[in-house]
Amino acid sequence: MSLELMDEPISQGQKGTFVRLVKYMGPHKGRVALALLLLGGATAADVLQPILVKVFLDRYLIPRHFPESHLILLGAAYLLLVLLTAGLNVLQLLIFQTLALDIIQTLRVELFDKIQTLALEFFDQTPVGVLVARITNDTQAILDMFMTVMSTFVQNIVVVMGVMGGMFALDPRLAVYCLLIIPVMGLVMWAYQKVSSPVFRIVRQRNAIINAKLNESLQGMAIIQAMRQERRLRREFGDVNEAYRQIRYRNTQINGLMLRPLVDTISLFALIVVLAFYGTQSFFHHINVGILFAFVTYLSRLFEPFNNMMDRLNFFQQAMVSAERVFQILDNPSRRPESAGDERPSIARGEVRFEDVSFSYDGETDVLKHLSFVAKPGQTVAIVGHTGSGKSTTINLLMRFYPVERGRITIDGHDLQSFSEDEIRAKMGLVLQDPFLFVGDITSNVRLGNEELDDQAVREAAQFVQADQFIDRLAEGYQAPIGERGATLSTGQRQLLSFARTMVRQPTILVLDEATASVDTETEDQIQESLRKMRHGRTTIAIAHRLSTIQDADLILVLHHGEVVERGTHQELLAKRGLYHKMYLLQGGLKESAVGQ
Amino acid sequence: MRVFAELMWFFKAHRRDYAVGVLFIIMGSALSLVPPAVVGVVINHLTNHTMTWRFLLAALGVIFGTAAVRYGTGYLWRVRVFGGSIRLATEIRDKLYAHFTKLSPEFYHHHRIGDLMAHATNDVQAIQETAGSGVLTLVDSITMGAMVVATMAITISWKLTVICLLPLPLMAFAVTRYGRMLHDRFMVAQAAFSDINDRVQEYVSGIRVVRAFGQEQWERRTFVDLSRDVVQKNVAVAKIDALFDPTISVIVGLSYFLAVAVGAVFVVQKTMNLGNLTAFTLYLGELIWPMLAFGFLFNTVERGSASWDRVKTLLAIEPTVVNRPEALLATPSGGIRFDIDTFRYPESDRLVLENIHLYVPEGSTLGIVGRTGTGKTTLMRLLLREFDLKNGDISIGGTSIYDVELEALRSAIAYAPQDDFLFSMSIHGNIAFQNPDASLSEVERVARLADVHDDIVRFQDGYETVVGERGVTLSGGQKQRVSIARALLQDAEILLLDDTLSAVDARTEATILGALKETRQGRTTLIATHRLSAVEHADQIIVLEDGCIVERGAHEELLRQDGRYAEMWGRQQLESLVEQGGAAL
Fold first, then answer.
1. Are B498 and B376 in contact (CB under 8 A)?
2. What was the pLDDT predicted at B573?
3. Inter-chain residue contact B206 with A505, CB threshold 8 Å
4. Which residues in chain A have their CB less than 8 angstroms from residue B565's CB?
5. Which tens digits make up the pLDDT trace of A290-315?
6. Do A289 and B274 touch (CB under 8 A)?
7. Which CATH class is domain B1-156+297-319?
8. Which of A194, A352, B31, B478 has the fewest beta carbons closer than 10 A?
9. What is the 3-state secondary structure (H, E, C) of A380-431?
10. Which of 3.40.50.10740, 1.20.1560.10, 1.10.357.10, 1.10.10.10 would CATH assign to domain A15-330?
11. How far apart are the first and last CA of chain B?
């Protein structure tokens, strides 16, 4: 069932994809020209060698005429040509390869830049693994195409042309016959591509199925074993494995029929033609044996390029599939919200106002309905509610992660859209529920790429949020390495560090998404203390899970299914004896149920 | 070369294929000696003006015949030898897969899936190459090399042969050396590639932080640097790669030069004629391939034997949970008794369970509650024999679970695990995972019991809807209910629900539990849960804390005890009030 679904996108317009790829060579015209020039030189030097041998045979050896200086000159020229061929080839190969690498660098950076401009929805909808594969693996496959396919083709075509040129120089009449080889080989290549490419496509698909099946079985092994399905899955795996073997075998058969054995056969036929030509000629004219020698040598060089090209044809196909996927991302129309209008106000006082804001992620169900509130400069507005009530969406909109489509959010009276990206990021400090840490050290995680922040600033921020206590206890202090996702630190420590990185930027507006995970009591106290200090003198929009932390909030909004169901201060809400009251009781525990009334 | 001996079992099993393949390789090599000889003779006739029509036709006929036969042999050995190597890879993959299905969970604690995948793909590929092109190059370079050299030495001139061969060992040397350098540098480049992979992975995972802190420019610089590093390391690879062919062409050019120069001297001395000289240079051309192949051979075999060693090591790992000798075949039935003194996971010091002594009568329901990490799941995994107890015993109907065969034990138990893993196949296939032949009506029946039928029929393809990355993404609650349906299809005497109702709402939970109660009368059910409402009606409830039973009894009893259970119950009652309260307001 799932097998058919593993199908690759049927490539439409492979030509368009190819042309688009070739355009990436545009800026490197000079280097391409130089490489081609060197290649031409190398090929010419290579093609000249048999001609020197021919001269030696016909002019000196056969007439038994040996002027020493001529022979030394001839020998030296031959050896020089050998070295020249090799030297020029090294250079042109290197240029072609670095050129391919540079093109891929350009493509990768372009892709990365594109991803930076995509809206967050794109990241929500695309699995991380898929996106990573586009940026790295697919570009690598395209690299193969530039490196092996294109350069192989260019080089071998030049070699074929050079050898043909040599043949014409030796004997134009015979060379005309040999010219026939090119359409014959072209036909063989075309036929091979025609026959092998569908098979090769199935090879890749079945290989992907095997890998997917294996990966999935390894992940679900516990269930497979608990349900005693080992035998069945072994059989199923055996089936896909056998199907893969059969198609690989098929591929081998095609290669055996159409690649090297066929090319070798054609080359022997060409030899027959050459021998027949000279053999017949010899009955009527005198034959220069040297020419025959050189011709036979050329023939032996003419076919290897075709072998090389045909070996690479399958890479081309793979690269086109990858290129199509990469271009799909590059052509993705989704854009992150951007500044609009000409005015670029700055955030000075920090007054946040939501005016009748509604929002839907999928365009069907509203996760936020008619939300309105005002946070005056320095005030704290707390949002409470259960999972899915719309708390996180409120923050996503305020941070301009998603565009406000209905209603309006203003800061200091200016529409959120009018601010520059830098202004928003500099003045609005977000503390995320999941304090995502990057591989690096403590300092780099506080700085987060802002190199203007010196060590002193980092230290002060850490002290301010009281993260310095645990940092000082670490052996390497502020240089202590942080592993993947901050696994070396406790949840509380990660939390404090994420405070520090927000505070080091001294934001005017603080946006808090309080962590749900409980941490040990000692750190918990520190976190609460730090939060109080952080909020002091700043407009704060906080999602709170612990009601104890927001008792002094100026306004508390209780969200339920995207709507504000209660609003007021702590005391006012308790007096209402509604949802907030119940939540408060719940969190305080049964025993303190009398508190606050 | 040891790897060839170690793969002998395979070569022996397919000796006909390999015998025929090797024979044809040798035949092909021998045939490739014919055309140069013919060319030599033709040239001699031309220089001596002794060419006749008959001779010419005969010569061309010989070449034509050679071409035809060589095409046949070339095709046949490829199909036999490469076909054989593909078969070998298939067999090894099958072996590995079968082995993976036998290994116990302990193995999967120690091995990352990515690494196991690499064994089954890259290592198998390397072994395949050894058995394919490795065998070819071994046979071909030896026989072809020997035959060409012998022909040159015997039929033309041994002196010239020796002289012209002088530079050729350089080629084998260069190829081996470049091959190794390429390999090393390639590894370095791969490491750089994997760095950028990790970095992108991190960037994408932390995209919200990146955007919130306006880190984009810095991220871009880091990415550009890493990407440039990849390029530089690949340039290092390209430098060797670019040397490869030109080096060979210099060595070959040198050999040719020697052949023509020294050969000319011999021709003047009349110890050789021109035809022989031409044939000689053609033979020289035939020698390039065996020499190259010899160089490649070392690298192929080196990689192949390292891979084979890794695969062998993996295949040698024994499963830790196995059938004991004289284990019973009959499916156990009856009440479950846990007598666990202590349990630790292998290679861990932490006590996970301690002093669990408990009897679950046949047909009753046991509730297991407690915080995360207190041993609820472990208890179920021990019953399933994912791990074996060292201190203590578990029995079903008076028979120790260690005295029955694994198959028999597991057929008595249906399990809905905490991690609601579904396979990327149709929903039908997932529910009928344990019995793929189950009818649609049966699948629908259990889907209704698990209260997921209505959700399923709303999908466009109903029960044929494919789940997972390539299909529909189910919500956590839907996945859990499919996983329950999957367990119910087994219709076993014992049902284990390991926190499988955590993502469904209270009403659905009640519906499912009600349906279970009705259909599973007289059969035993174990429910581990965070949410106490799921075990409210259980006959017996145990509260676990740090691997010990701290409270036990029925719901009412436990409430009366006013301990942990009562505290949790009160808290959760309020929580559900809040859940519903907003709507009520």
1. yes
2. 76
3. no
4. none
5. 888 888 888 888 888 888 888 888 77
6. yes
7. mainly alpha
8. A194
9. EEEEECCCCCCHHHHHHHHCCCCCCCEEEEEECCEEHHHCCHHHHHHHEEEE
10. 1.20.1560.10
11. 80
> In chain B, whose CA is at the least distance from the CA of A229?
B434
Say how far apart CA B486 and CA B501 lie, in whole Å. 14
Are the beta carbons of A559 and A391 closer than 8 angstroms? yes
pLDDT (tens digit per residue) in B274-312: 888 888 988 888 887 787 777 778 778 888 888 899 999
Q: Do B417 and A222 touch (CB under 8 A)?
A: yes
Please tell me whether residue A25 adopts helix, strand or coil conformation. Answer: coil
Contact B75 A589 (CB under 8 A): no
Q: Quick check: A3 contacting B, CB < 8 Å? A: no
Distance in angstroms (rounded) separating the CA atoms of residues A154 and A169: 23
- Residue in B with minimal Cα distance to A94: B242
Residues B392-421: tens digit of each pLDDT? 999 999 999 999 999 999 999 999 988 778
Closest CA to A276 of B301, B58, B73, B56: B56
For B380, which residue in chain A has the nearest alpha carbon? A226
Number of Cβ pairs < 8 A linking chain A and chain B: 370
Chain B residue with minimum CA distance to A91 = B242
What stretches of A227-363 show up as alpha helix (H) in DSSP?
A: 230-258, 260-282, 289-302, 304-330
User: Nearest Cα to B456, choosing from B475, B437, B436, B433?
Assistant: B475
CB-CB neighbours of A180 under 10 Å: 11
CB contact under 8 A, A221 and B100: yes
Q: What are phi and psi of B542, to 5 degrees?
A: -115, 140
A-chain residues near B482 (CB < 8 A):
none
CB contact A222 to B (< 8 Å): yes
Closest CA of chain B from A272, distance in Å: 6
Mutating which of A55, A218, A298 best tests the B interface, going by the most B Cβ atoms within 10 A?
A218
Q: What is the pLDDT of residues A12-53, one digit of tens each?
A: 567 788 888 889 988 999 998 999 999 999 989 988 888 898
User: With 70 as the cut, is the pLDDT of residue A457 above it?
Assistant: yes
Inspect the interface and report whether the beta carbons of A249 and B86 lie closer than 8 Å. yes
Tell me phi and psi for residue B417, to 5 degrees.
-75, 165
Where are the domains positioned within chain A? 15-330, 352-436+509-592
Q: Nearest CA of chain B to the CA of A204: how many Å? A: 13
3-class state of residue A367 by DSSP: coil
Q: Taking CA atoms, what residue in B is nearest to A116?
A: B216
Q: Decide if A5 and B218 are in contact by the 8 Å CB cutoff.
A: no
Cβ under 8 Å to B: A residues 467-506: 484-485, 501, 505
How far B415 CA sits from the closest chain A CA (Å)?
Answer: 7
- For B155, what's the count of Cα atoms within 13 Å in the CB-facing half-sphere? 20
Note the maximum CA span of chain B. 122
Asked if B581's CB is within 8 angstroms of A582's CB, the reply is yes
This model of the complex carries an ipTM of: 0.87
> What pLDDT does residue B131 have?
93
- Segments in B48-167 forming alpha helices (H): 53-77, 83-102, 105-110, 113-118, 124-129, 135-151, 158-165
Distance CA B539, CA B516 (A): 14
A1 and chain B in contact, CB less than 8 A: yes
- The CATH architecture that domain A352-436+509-592 belongs to is 3-Layer(aba) Sandwich (3.40)
- Rounded distance, CA A79 to CA A82, Å? 5
Q: What are phi and psi of B372, to 5 degrees?
A: -60, 140
Quick one: B419-491 is in which CATH superfamily?
P-loop containing nucleotide triphosphate hydrolases (3.40.50.300)
Q: Which residue has the tokens 């989704």?
A: A334
Question: Which residue out of B33, B100, B571 would a mutagenesis test of the A interface target, given it has the greatest number of A Cβ atoms within 10 Å?
Answer: B100
